[in-house]
Specification:
CATH class: Alpha Beta
Radius of gyration: 17 Å
Number of strands: 9
CATH architecture: Alpha-Beta Complex
Number of domains: 1
Largest sheet: 5 strands, antiparallel
Strand order of the largest sheet: 2-6-5-4-7
Length: about 190
């Protein structure tokens, strides 16, 4: 199974993001239903490993918090665009939840994530080389804002890859509490 952990987005935010999707040749747009904020990509695991991950994630305790989706950017390799994304405003609560999820996944026997966490929503991926239209597209959407939503849960997804693009299946949802958040909480362990 190919797994990842993410914050699901409400329909209204996904709809706003979908309005951005178009006008870039070579872009493979993410289906509106699949838009999310990845907390941890896990990758291929066996069934028993998925069960261990589920148990570890179910033990995560974290308060609910607000997330603001705003701005547009691009991850590049050299001058080649790889991923067009919508940004997430800096958020200590989100970073703290991501750290808790990472600890849980590692405790469940998975290798630590080596990439630095950059909260975003992937809008499109690019296969081919340079795309001269990406820079102007990003510049033209610097003031974009999809709004703020309440993150009240995070989700373990299974990704089914097929010719029409991936399909994401919810394996488990984990509620976030109503407790208060302080910046110091981000330093706590599980």
């Amino acid at each position: 199974m190919r797994l990842f952990v993410a914050l699901p987005l409400p329909a209204a935010v996904r709809r706003e993001l979908a309005f951005l999707q178009g006008g870039l040749p070579g872009a493979r747009w993410v289906d509106e239903a699949n838009l999310h904020v990845t907390l941890r990509f896990i990758g291929e695991v066996e069934g028993h490993e998925a069960e261990e991950i589920d148990i570890a994630l179910a033990a995560v305790r974290w308060p609910a918090f607000d997330v603001t989706v705003a701005g547009v950017g691009c991850f590049e390799t050299g001058k080649r665009p790889r991923v067009l994304w919508a940004g997430i405003d800096r958020n200590p609560a989100l970073a703290g939840l991501r750290d808790k999820v990472e600890s849980a996944v590692v405790r469940a026997g998975q290798e630590p994530e080596r990439r630095k966490f950059k909260a975003h929503v992937t809008l499109a991926r690019f296969k081919t080389g340079r795309n001269e239209r990406v820079g102007p597209f990003v510049a033209g959407h610097t003031g974009f804002a999809a709004g703020t939503f309440r993150a009240d849960r995070f989700t373990l997804f299974r990704s089914h890859l097929n010719h029409g693009g991936p399909h994401y299946e919810v394996l488990a949802e984990y509620p976030l509490g109503d407790g208060s958040f302080s910046g110091d909480d981000a330093d706590e362990g599980l």
